[in-house]
Write a structure and sequence with these properties.
The chain has a domain at about 35-70. The chain contains 5 helices and 2 strands. It has helices spanning about 10-15, 25-80, 85-95, 110-145, 150-165; strands at about 100, 105. The termini are far apart.
Length: about 170
């Protein structure tokens, strides 16, 4: 067998490139791709931990919601019990109301004696105010017809309003 002789020119071409057989463009492209890959891993890790945080918050809010719904049920039940006729009768007896034969709750004497004078005072003050308002409404209408000066009517209109404001 004979060997082929390798020309020296081919060996010289291979050695001209230098010690590195990979061009710098490929190294730079590989470095950029590696950085993008690492950045993606960090972004995915951030998303993962934020989703875990949201799940913890969500479970805490669900527990809180369940507690609030249970409190709401208890309060509704307490409200229904408080508004039941039997409970209302118990509370009325504690306050001092008594049940009459015609099913109307009678007011105790102590409360009745306290209510009557104040009710009469209120009726008197209301009736006196109604009378003053009627006078104030009727007075300007009669005086405006009699007076010929516009300034007199203005002054006369102001007097009833001053009387109303004073009371």
């Amino acid at each position: 067998m004979s060997r082929k002789k390798i020309s020296q020119t081919n060996q010289q071409k291979k050695t001209k490139r230098g010690g590195s057989s990979i061009p710098w463009r490929y190294c730079f492209l590989t470095l950029i791709c590696g950085l993008l890959l690492i950045t993606g891993f960090f972004f995915a890790a951030g998303q993962h931990f934020s989703s875990i945080d949201y799940s913890y918050r969500n479970s805490h809010l669900r527990k809180q919601l369940n507690e609030l719904e249970a409190d709401k049920r208890r309060l509704v039940l307490a409200k229904e019990i408080a508004l039941s006729p039997a409970e209302i009768k118990k509370v009325a007896k504690k306050i001092g109301f008594t049940e009459t034969t015609d099913k109307i709750a009678a007011v105790p004497a102590s409360i009745n004696s306290a209510i009557k004078p104040s009710a009469e005072k209120i009726k008197q003050s209301i009736s006196s105010r109604i009378e003053t308002i009627k006078k104030a409404v009727e007075t300007p209408a009669k005086e405006t017809v009699k007076s010929s000066k516009p300034q007199d009517t203005k002054n006369k209109l102001d007097k009833p309003q001053a009387q109303i404001a004073a009371r």
